[in-house]
Amino acid sequence: MEFITDVIQFFSMLDDRLLAMAQANAWTFVGVVALIIFVETGVVVMPFLPGDSLLFVSGAVAAVTDVNVHVFALILIVAAVLGDAVNYTIGRRVGLKLFANPDSKIFRQEYLAKTQAFYDKYGAFSIVMGRFVPIVRTFVPFLAGVARMPYSKFFFYNVTGGIFWVGSLMYAGYFLGNLPWAKENLSIIVIGIVIASVMPMVIKYWQEKRAATQASSH
């Protein structure tokens, strides 16, 4: 319960923290956000960083500061594409060795299994779709590398996904950031985005738990 409270508090203050950073130094703000996006998508041990909410709030902050949203969006698209490219390379070179330990707290086999199911369902397009699903977006490019997807094919979906993910969330934040009611309730909107992002995984977990309980009772 304390962890959940800390998470909610963190995201409820995300807009204020980013706004203060942007007002202090715009390029520091842009650099920090770009680094977080790169690390979340490119480093397989960082699947819990705030991707969707960070992009939305960054767009909203750009709307009320001197940050050029178009240049900002382009920088973040490049960061997201480079992140996935690094993740693909890690998967291709190191592969499943990282997940060999079933007791690993970081390289959890359940994450890989869920990503594999997502990958099997959507195929190469999962690289685009996975951008909008926390945890999955970190492991999909890694799995594409493990599966040795041709890089030219991966690159196409990587760039497409990066453009749609960054563009849709950033510009949504940018345009809503100019609306009075959105400015007054930005923290609530951010928390709503976080809940909407993780809800599919919570529902899936509940369904699997329920199915397992029913199976064991028969």
Which key phrases capture this entry?
single chain, 218 residues, mainly alpha, disordered N terminus
Can you walk through the features of this model?
The chain is 78% helix and 0% strand. The chain is built from eleven helices and no strands. The longest helix is centred in the C-terminal third of the chain and has 32 residues, at 186-217. The protein is mainly alpha-helical. The model is unreliable at 1-12 (pLDDT under 50).
SSE blueprint and pairings:
Layout: H1 2-12, H2 14-24, H3 26-42, H4 51-63, H5 69-93, H6 109-122, H7 126-129, H8 136-146, H9 151-176, H10 180-184, H11 186-217
Q: Please give the alpha-carbon distance between the first and last residues.
A: 33 Å
Order of helices and strands: HHHHHHHHHHH
Strand content: under 5%
Helix fraction by DSSP (H/I, runs of at least 4): over 70%
Count of individual beta strands? 0
Give the helix tally: 11
Main structural class = mainly alpha
- Biggest sheet layout: none
Quick rundown:
With 218 residues, the chain is mainly alpha-helical. It is built from eleven helices and no strands.
